[in-house]
Amino acid sequence: MVYKIGICDDQVVEQRYLQSLVEKWAKSENHQVEIEVYASAESFLFREETLTLDLLLLDIEMGAMDGVSLAKHLRQAQQELPIIFISGYSDYLADGYDVSALHYLLKPVNPEKLFEVLNRGIKQVALEEQVLLFESSGTTHSVRIKNIRYIEVQSNYVTVHANESIRMKRPLKEIEELLDASFFRIQRSYIVQLNWIKKITRKEVILNDETKLPLARGKYEALNQQMIRYL
User: Which positions carry the signal peptide feature in this UniProt record (predicted)?
Assistant: First the structure.
């Protein structure tokens, strides 16, 4: 597979540095990449409709339109493109959370840290393509893993909450065996996908869509450790 990676930065020196790092990462991981470079947010938007990027390295401090504004535009347009923010300051961390950025890297970019984040991004791209098949009432449903927010069990029935809710009579343990490390069982009746988690407290897990689910006693530390390992 060829991964298409965009670099949007208004400084030529930074463009070349990031491009060299991406090429070095691709060589070390035996990946093929196509790199697109944009000198401003405006030049990126000019080609937006024809872009098919897998990842975007986005500088925050640019000209008339900054990186945060561009990221917000992409999210409003329902584009789920993984974004890695690049900045010389830590002041914009909150903005990164607001647009669900994959990560926030400070300049000068550390090569090893960037490589780690790029590997995470590739995992996310792979997740985009994966599907699970569920049979309910004689109908087989194909569900993208990335769209599964959480799975719950009530009595003998399991409900998969994705773009639609699919209810089936099947043991939760059978469903759990189909899932990878991006899922975590937060309580006897609930399994959550880590990518959908917005906030964790001692008593509950809050998802990006503001759904609140109970967190079992003793699961708080384990969930945080799983988040660190996976994300």
Answer: none
